[in-house]
Amino acid sequence: MKMFEDAARSLADGKPILLYDFDDREAETDLIYLAENIDERAVADLRLNAGAPLTVYISWDMGQALGLDTYLDFVSENADADSIYGALSKPTPGFDPRFSITLDFRENKTGCSHVETARTIRELCALLKSGDAEKFAELFRAPGHIPLIIGSKGLLKERNGHTELIMAFAINQGLFPMVVASEMIDADSGHSTSYADARKYGEKRGLDFIGGIELMEVYG
Question: Transmembrane ranges (predicted)?
Fold first, then answer.
């Protein structure tokens, strides 16, 4: 599909794309960069022009290589159900978060700036590409400024969130499946940017726009 090929080429060239999920899900659009191409300008773009907290999406296999579970999985296995951790982690109907830990690269001063945020992401991407996951704790510390989100093992056969949509897309397009994303927030209303306004924003910037419906048709 040409729209997918164009979007994959943009990501590979260091440009962002926009990804909308579904009207009956979150009805949100992510601004997304490929992690291996991230720099301070891209981090600034995500923080200033999208607006929601910046997050890094990694595949289930990457999470396993790093020895990481989602936060909810970790708490369910290690915390007393009556503790505050257990109480806060009780399921909410319709809410299925895949958040894991937050981290920073150990050589950063704080990890907060655009420059240091970009470095943390690039260093993690390089670690995962090198296959040296055993150095994870040596090179990174937690908690930090970069939230990790781990895709579900079965991807779109198991869950159809933004994480699984972009992971399935990246894998099938031959891209390294680690991305940096932020949801688009309307600065005037304070709510998520509407589909129509996200499309207009993408057209104004010349960004490729892909949607969950099309992705599910091809990869679901």
Answer: none
